[in-house]
Specification:
CATH superfamily of the largest domain: NAD(P)-binding Rossmann-like Domain
Number of domains: 2
Strand content: 5-15%
Shape: elongated
Order of helices and strands: EHEHEHEHEHEEHEHHHHHH
Bound molecules: 1,4-dihydronicotinamide adenine dinucleotide, (2S)-3,4-dihydro-2H-pyrrole-2-carboxylic acid
Radius of gyration: 21 Å
Number of strands: 8
């Protein structure tokens, strides 16, 4: 892909994953600028990926065709207010990865309508296995939308949502989703240990099983429910485990948990817009 100059403002965990994915995909690290108030985070990025780094957000924006806003939602207002003049002067495509901040709010903080793509990525971007949901404002040109899509395609799959509310759902599914699977892995490893396996054996079996199940679900023409059926012999062992999960209302718990994530995204939109 022809890479634009990209500035990551607030390059912490999530930006680290995206930058790592981009560089591993062959993007020229010299096209990437990363900023942070914390010099040790910048040193790590520079050592691992040889990208340009600076503590000066204005300097990074001055180089950029695309500005990725990747600070925590709670400090976004202060950061944008400070950068408002630089953003207006450069007029880049802005990609915000912050959970729960509406494009309209970002535009208000900049002080004028801007081309904004809201992107909800996830940390497996580091391994080019990310999943991102994208939403664009009317100010985004076709070329800019394509640039945003290409950028995030370099680190995984991208799907556009038509309504901005869709980003709340994407956040609950794939943005936060890796943490749900990690929690499940932790629980399976602990349960394996409780059944007598040593910690390393329980861990390796758990992780390889997660990988194998995800690969099968992705590559098979069968739906996950059918793949599950094929593992579950009538009167066998899996049936006992599945029955136990269902008696514990796993499905409704998952629904409730993901609604809580989506509700928090909506709630943040209201709180942070003030
Ligand atoms: N971590 C995740 O899995 C995901 C995070 N997000 C979003 O990504 C954003 C960042 O999240 P994380 O990377 O987890 O947070 P983080 O805290 O690791 O990264 C933010 C970085 O911004 C730096 N920073 C603070 N003030 C700054 C300033 N004035 N100028 C420059 N840098 C500054 C901090 O030192 C920190 O390293 C959030 O808005 C979050 O909603 C979205 C999807 C997934
Ligand atoms: O927990 C959060 O708020 C962020 C957004 C999605 C994943 N991490």
């Amino acid at each position: 892909m022809t890479t634009p100059n990209i500035a990551f403002i607030g390059a912490g965990n999530m930006a680290f994953s995206i930058i790592g994915g981009l560089v591993k995909q062959g993007v020229d690290p010299k096209k990437i600028w990363a900023t942070n108030i914390d010099q040790s985070s910048l040193d790590k990025l520079e050592q691992e990926f040889q990208v340009n780094t600076t503590q000066d957000n204005h300097q990074a924006i001055a180089q950029a065709d695309v500005v990725v806003l990747s600070v925590k939602p709670q400090i976004m207002k202060d950061v944008i207010t400070d950068l408002s003049e630089s953003l207006k002067a450069k007029n880049p495509l802005i990609i915000s990865i912050a959970a729960g901040i509406k494009a309209e709010t970002l535009q208000e903080w900049v002080g004028q309508p801007m081309a904004i793509v809201r992107c909800m990525p996830n940390t497996p971007a580091l391994l080019q296995c990310g999943a991102s949901g994208l939403y664009k404002t009317p100010e985004v040109s076709d070329a800019q939308a394509e640039a945003a899509e290409q950028l995030m395609n370099a680190v995984g799959i991208t799907l556009w949502v038509k309504d901005e509310d869709g980003i709340d759902a994407v956040t609950a599914v794939s943005g936060s989703g890796p943490a749900y699977y990690f929690l499940f892995m932790e629980a399976m490893q602990q349960a394996g240990e409780a059944l007598g396996l040593d910690s390393q054996t329980a861990k390796q079996l758990t992780l390889q099983t997660a990988l194998g199940a995800a690969k099968m679900a992705l590559e098979s023409s069968d739906e996950p429910s059918e793949l599950r059926r094929k593992v579950t012999s009538p009167g066998g062992t899996t049936e006992q485990a599945i029955n136990t999960f269902q008696q514990g209302n796993l499905e409704s718990l998952v629904k409730e948990a993901m609604k809580a994530a989506s509700d928090r995204s909506k709630e943040l939109s209201k709180i942070l817009a003030q």
